Amino acid sequence: MISYILSLNQNLTPGFLLLFFVVALVVGMAKAGLSGLGLAIIPVMALIFGAKESTGVILPMLITADIMAVIYYHRNAVWKYILRILPWVTLGIVTALITGNMINNSQFRIVMISIVWIMLILMVFNDLRKKEESLIPDNRYFGPSMGFAGGFATMIGNSAGPVFTLYFLAMKLPKKEFIGTSAWLYLIMNTGKLPLQALVWKNITLSSLTLDLIAVPVIASGIFLGIHIVNLFPEKAYRYFVIITTLGSSVLLFL
């Protein structure tokens, strides 16, 4: 079985295979509400498969985890916040789709890292300011700018987590509403990206889909583990956990 899995991709070694399954577990935990952990999978998958190629392996895994998260948290979604930014998310995805075919692998990685760090800085800056001076969620430029940046980041490297974390934290959503709304947005967004990456970037292949299928039980385990951990957090502690883990995991982008 292991030899078959390793044969699916020439870059896979036993060590990389173990990392791949760790990534699958983290994907499930992140989608269950431990969202800050999701950023850690980007550099690890880029190490195994390459920056651009890795996005084609990760995307079906994310969609699988999104479906599981939506099944559990579907009643907690606040749809007005999704509908407000969805058109701008689409515009960001299309822009990134064009950009992705014009840059090489190194440039692709630099763009991906830059987007993540800009959004992380904004997220921390917003949280440190006084309440009366914080970013105004109802500002007419806030939603569109977050939607466009998130759409661009998700297409470039599945790295929209910090963008939409900032957006939903600014909306002051309670823990379960934060997770449920995020789950639906990611499911819609990632499902829409699937044909684009398969037909335009051509980085979703039969071998990558086979790897994704093998990872499904591990992703499911991550979902159950993540749900259990999230339920242990009080509301305020959960907010700080999301910010701290997002910051911590982003350091991996520079390794």
Q: Can you walk through the features of this model?
A:
The chain has 255 residues and is mostly helical. The chain contains 11 helices and no strands. The longest helix is centred in the C-terminal third of the chain and has 27 residues.
Give the tags.
11 helices, 0% strand, globular
How many beta-strand runs? 0
Largest sheet: none
Low-confidence stretches: none
Order of helix and strand elements from N to C terminus: HHHHHHHHHHH
Radius of gyration over C-alpha positions, nearest whole angstrom: 17 Å
Structural class: mainly alpha
Share of helical residues: over 70%
Write the SSE topology.
Layout lengths: L1 H6 L6 H18 L9 H9 L1 H23 L5 H22 L4 H24 L13 H16 L3 H10 L4 H27 L4 H25 L4 H16 L5
Helix pairs in contact: 2-3, 2-4, 2-10, 3-4, 4-9, 4-10, 5-7, 5-9, 6-7, 6-8, 6-11, 7-8, 8-11
Quick overview of this protein structure:
The chain is 77% helix and 0% strand.
